[in-house]
Each structure stands twice: as structure tokens, then as C-alpha cells.
């Protein structure tokens, strides 16, 4: 056990005494089995206390064994919230127990499991509960309230101009594509990225359960809350490999897992450590990441959409319509080489984000709420419903299914062949253009991919000069 578990003996002793109960002046041996599994955190305090009280016949043994207990004890006997309660609740359900007894602050997440939940404030309430099994569990958390949709606070309609970038975001959301925005500082790249979750479809009940379990295990779940909207994670570029991918002595989920079913936004992409970016190849391709240590290997889910942003050069003003770039070609090449070709090739959509001029900002036309998240989201949801009938999002179409799902006529093949020859489009790039074109066709409600779908998809490739 780690130090927090070793210290639990003092917390448990104080909690029992300060609850008005007698603690025996004798040696007590507690077995945390199996011995080879690392124990950490204060989650064991309440079960340890109940085991001792049952052994002393203060709590009835035959009743105690019917519940699963989780919670940290304070010195005065109060039960404090802990992480991982939703997974513990699912375990109680799997073991066929009556239910779970947990801190009040963890009630909502525990209720997601469908098992009976008894929220408690202090140790004496726990004892009273096991002595009187007729007490009813929490019933105020109805399923329709647990899974009700929450409004996202940001709206894409708040962004002035940026028609091309908004269109690219719409395509990325509809097909689950990764996207890179390139543009000078202040052009609105971060503002656009933060509004992507507002046009994504609502999380399903299964996805809400997955996300809540992840955040609960990581200790990032707020008081009596669940993850009901697509997560948005934006780590700083100084983050370590373990912080991004996951790791630690006892492997913990990283940012790629916390962004599961949502968005991982990497601002200032070239400033991230090269090793951390290269480690993202597996999560991007496989939708999961395996963290291996000497004693164990844990696989975390990581099915996310990566949205990245970067400046075109070190000073940031290359291609700016009104400001001059003072970077040398060597400096620009060195700056862009911080991102490897294989990683760039895994990003489906590349788009240039121009700064918005003052006239556009002050124009009455642009102040009107056009292209709101609600309107765009309706189109995205409709496109995704089409893809669900095929079994997966367009971004995850496998190579063996590509020809069947994305058949091309002679005209489309000629256009792609010309692009491969003229712009040295890689085979991976060729396939990703077809997937993006399939998404564009789905947004239009078209059954077949046409020339203009391919043409629009090609403009989002870096080989074509996008960005």
C-alpha cells in the first residue's frame, strides 16, 4: 500500500473513537488481498472501519457482507468523497450485492450503474443503515435526469467571419476527422476549436458511462456530477509524455484518455515535445493506448478527435495580409520540421485561418447570428446517422472497406490520379481525401462521391498548399 493507505489506520481509529464508539486496546491485523496489487488512496477507510466494527459485533456481520463500502474517513467520523466510485458501483452490481454505500458527493456517479445507492454523511449513519436494512436507497436520481442533455456554453455563431474554417469544422465534426488550423496569432484558432463540441452529437448513455468512469478514476469528476457533454481537453505544450499519453508508477489515464469521445485540442503544436507527439500515433490510429510497466500493462480508451493549431512560422506572420514576416526560410523550415511527416499525414483536414479585418467585425451583417451551433449540429447529426448505418464514422473506414463504402467514378479517379502525380500525394493522403470527400457527400445527402466533393476534400490537404 502507498502512504495514504498506511495512514488509514490512524484515520479509522480516530473516526471510530470520535463517533462515540469504543476502539479495543488490542492488535488488529488487516489483510488487503490480493497482496500483489498496488493499493492507493483513501477509498479503503470506510470498508476497513466496517470490517473492524463487524469483527467487534458493533455492526451485524450478516448485514455488512451484503453491501459494498467506499469512502475516506475524516478524523471526526465524516465520510469524504473519493475517486472511482462509479466503477465500484458496477462491481457491486456484478457481485450481486444489495447496493453500494458511498459519500453523498459521489451519489450521482454511483447511480449511473443502476445499482441501489445509499449516500451517507458519517460513520454512525453507515452503522444505522446496516442495522436497519429497511431504509430505502436514494431514489431522487431518475434515469431521465441522469442522462438529460446539457447545453454547451459556447456557440459557433459567436465567431465573426472565418467561413472556410467553420466549414472545415463542420466536416471534421460530421466525419470524426482530425484537423489542423494554421494561421497568424489572434486569427481565432483557439476560439474555433473550443466551439467544436457545440456541434458534436450528444453523448449516448454508453458514452456518458465511459467518460464518467474515466473522470471518476482520474479524480477529475466534480462534486455530484457526471460527464454529459463531449469532453474538451486543452493541455499546455509543456506537458510530459506521461501526462499526454498516460503513465506513472501506477498507470493513470492521460489527456488522450480524458478526451475520449470528445476533443483533444493541441494549441501551438510545434511547441510540444517531439516524443510526446510521436507517442500519439497509436492512440490516433487505434482508439486506445496501452501503458506498460514492469508489474502491469493497462489499456485505456482514447477515441478522440484531435484538433491542432499552429503559427505558419516562428514570428507568426507568414502570409499575413498586413504584417511582414521577418523569418528566414531556414527558420521556417526548422520550425515546421518539429512536427513529423507521419503525424501530419494522419491529420485529415488542414485549413488556413486568416485574421478578420476591422470592417468585417464592425459590419452589421456579421453581427447577426448566422451559422449557429444548433443549425450546424443538425446537419452533423444527420450525416452521422447515415454513417451509423454503415457501422462506423468515415474517419475510421478501414482500408478493406474503403472501395465498397466510397466507390469512385472515372472522373473522380482521374482527378485524384492527377493530384497524386502533381502534388506527390501519399497513399495515406489519397485514402484520407476519399474519406473526407465521403463526409462532404454525406453532409449533402448524396449517395455517391462526385467531382466537387473530391475537389473540396483536396483543398484540405497540406500537399495542395492548404495552410
Mean pLDDT: 89
Q: If you compute it from the alpha carbons, what radius of gyration comes out, rounded to the nearest whole angstrom?
A: 27 Å
Shape: elongated
Described by strand count, sense and barrel closure, the largest sheet is: 5 strands, parallel
**Helix run count:** 24
Report the count of strand segments.
Answer: 14
User: What percent of residues are in strands?
Assistant: 5-15%
Low-confidence stretches: none
Q: Describe the strand arrangement of the main beta sheet, using strand numbers.
A: 7-10-13-6-14
**What is the CA–CA distance across the termini?**
52 Å
Structural class: alpha/beta
- The helicity comes to 40-55%
Question: Which tags fit this structure?
Answer:
467 residues, alpha/beta, five-stranded parallel β-sheet, three-stranded parallel β-sheet, 24 helices, 14 strands, 11% strand
Question: Can you give a write-up of this model?
Answer:
Helices cover 42% and strands 11% of the residues. The protein contains 24 helices and 14 strands. It has helices at residues 3-6, 8-18, 45-55, 61-64, 85-94, 107-111, 123-131, 143-146, 163-175, 189-194, 205-218, 241-245, 255-258, 274-278, 281-286, 329-336, 341-345, 358-362, 364-367, 373-390, 399-405, 410-423, 427-444, 451-458; strands at residues 67-69, 72-73, 79-80, 99-103, 116-120, 179-182, 232-233, 246-247, 252-253, 263-266, 288-292, 297-301, 305-310, 349-352. It is elongated. The mean pLDDT is 89.
Amino acid at each position: 500500500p502507498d502512504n495514504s493507505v498506511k495512514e488509514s489506520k490512524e484515520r479509522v481509529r480516530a473516526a471510530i473513537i470520535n463517533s462515540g464508539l469504543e476502539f479495543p486496546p488490542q492488535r488488529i491485523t488487516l489483510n488487503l488481498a490480493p497482496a500483489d496489487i498496488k493499493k492507493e488512496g483513501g477509498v479503503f477507510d470506510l470498508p476497513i472501519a466496517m470490517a473492524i466494527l463487524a469483527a467487534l459485533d458493533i455492526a451485524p456481520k450478516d448485514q455488512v457482507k451484503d453491501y459494498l463500502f467506499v469512502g475516506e474517513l475524516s478524523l471526526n467520523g465524516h465520510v469524504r468523497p473519493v475517486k472511482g466510485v462509479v466503477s465500484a458501483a458496477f462491481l457491486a452490481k456484478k457481485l450481486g450485492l444489495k447496493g453500494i454505500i458511498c459519500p453523498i458527493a459521489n451519489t450521482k456517479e454511483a447511480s449511473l450503474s443502476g445499482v441501489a445507492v445509499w449516500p451517507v454523511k458519517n460513520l454512525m449513519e453507515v452503522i444505522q443503515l446496516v442495522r436497519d436494512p429497511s431504509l430505502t436507497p436514494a431514489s431522487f436520481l431518475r434515469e431521465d435526469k441522469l442522462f438529460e442533455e446539457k447545453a454547451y456554453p459556447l456557440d459557433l455563431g459567436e465567431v465573426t467571419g472565418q467561413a472556410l474554417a467553420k466549414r472545415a469544422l463542420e466536416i471534421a465534426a460530421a466525419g470524426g476527422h482530425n484537423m489542423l488550423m494554421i494561421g497568424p496569432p489572434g486569427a481565432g484558432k483557439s476560439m474555433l476549436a473550443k466551439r467544436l463540441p457545440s456541434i458534436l452529437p450528444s453523448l449516448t448513455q454508453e458514452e456518458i458511462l465511459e467518460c464518467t468512469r474515466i473522470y471518476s478514476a482520474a479524480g477529475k469528476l466534480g462534486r455530484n456530477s457526471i460527464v454529459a457533454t463531449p469532453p474538451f481537453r486543452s493541455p499546455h505544450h509543456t506537458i510530459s509524455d506521461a501526462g499526454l499519453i498516460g503513465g506513472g508508477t501506477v498507470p493513470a489515464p492521460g489527456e488522450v484518455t480524458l478526451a475520449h469521445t470528445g476533443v483533444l485540442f493541441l494549441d501551438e503544436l510545434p511547441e510540444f515535445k517531439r516524443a510526446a507527439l510521436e507517442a500519439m500515433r497509436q492512440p490516433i490510429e487505434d482508439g486506445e493506448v496501452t501503458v506498460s510497466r514492469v508489474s502491469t500493462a493497462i489499456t485505456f480508451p482514447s477515441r478522440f478527435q484531435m484538433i491542432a493549431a499552429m503559427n505558419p512560422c516562428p514570428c507568426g506572420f507568414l502570409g499575413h495580409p498586413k504584417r511582414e514576416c521577418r523569418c528566414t526560410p531556414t527558420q521556417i523550415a526548422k520550425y515546421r520540421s518539429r512536427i513529423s511527416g507521419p503525424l501530419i499525414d494522419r491529420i485529415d483536414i488542414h485549413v488556413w485561418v486568416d485574421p478578420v479585418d476591422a470592417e468585417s467585425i464592425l459590419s452589421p451583417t456579421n453581427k447577426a447570428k448566422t451559422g449557429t451551433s444548433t443549425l450546424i449540429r443538425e446537419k452533423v447529426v444527420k450525416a452521422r446517422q447515415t454513417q451509423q448505418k454503415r457501422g462506423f464514422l468515415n474517419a475510421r473506414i478501414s482500408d478493406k472497406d474503403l472501395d465498397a463504402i466510397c466507390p469512385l467514378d472515372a472522373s473522380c479517379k482521374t482527378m485524384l490520379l492527377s493530384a497524386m502525380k502533381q502534388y506527390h500525394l501519399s497513399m495515406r493522403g489519397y485514402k484520407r481525401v476519399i474519406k473526407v470527400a465521403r463526409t462532404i457527400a454525406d453532409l449533402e445527402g448524396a449517395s455517391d462521391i462526385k467531382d466537387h466533393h473530391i475537389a473540396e476534400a483536396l483543398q484540405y490537404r497540406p500537399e495542395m498548399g492548404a495552410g
